[in-house]
Amino acid sequence: MSPAPKPALAEMRDRLFEEVERVLSAADGLDATQLSWTPSTKGANSLLVLAAHTVGAAERHVVRSVGGGEVSGTRDEEFVVRGDLAPIRARWDAVRQKIVETIDNMPPGRLDDAVPKPSRLRTIHGVLVHAIAHAAEHAGQAELTRDLVKERDAAR
């Protein structure tokens, strides 16, 4: 097993938190119409969907895949979310705590441990790296979507 000192796990945890917060912050100050707006590009999502999905994916990656815990929602629910950001932020508060408990209670030396199937990723390290990359990808999409909706509204 590779050594997985607590500082390395804490660094990965904190980076995941930073990327999820980037997604949520992109929605700050926007109204419900702006949060629900979807760019016309194929495969694009609204800020609400990006926020809900990023929180849910972080929970599935860390709490379920790494820690074997239960998750509080489904991927399908994330892609039909409506309303405002408050329920997503509330879910993030709960998910964030579950992630802290999962990662902070993980003994050192577990990064090379296998993750349960089904997963295309084979190790805890792989899942954590993927979780960070996934959240970072959606953070960039959220920031671009925010800029596009603001530009659209400024032109009106």
Description:
- By secondary structure, the protein is an all-alpha fold.
- The relative contact order is 0.22.
- The longest helix is centred in the last third of the chain and has 31 residues.
- The N and C termini lie far apart (59 Å).
Give the topology, please.
Layout: H1 6-26, H2 32-36, H3 47-66, H4 75-78, H5 86-104, H6 124-154
| 3D shape | elongated
Strand segment tally: 0
Number of contiguous helices: 6
Q: Give me the Rg, rounded.
A: 16 Å
Largest β sheet strand count, sense and barrel closure: none
Proportion of beta-strand residues: under 5%
Instruction: Tell me the span between the first and last alpha carbons.
Output: 59 Å
Low-confidence stretches: none
- What class would the helix/strand composition place it in? mainly alpha
- Helical residue percent? 55-70%
SSE string: HHHHHH
What value does the average pLDDT take? Answer: 91
Summarize the structure.
The protein has helices at 6-26, 32-36, 47-66, 75-78, 86-104, 124-154. With 156 residues, it is mostly helical.
Q: Characteristics of this structure?
A:
156 residues
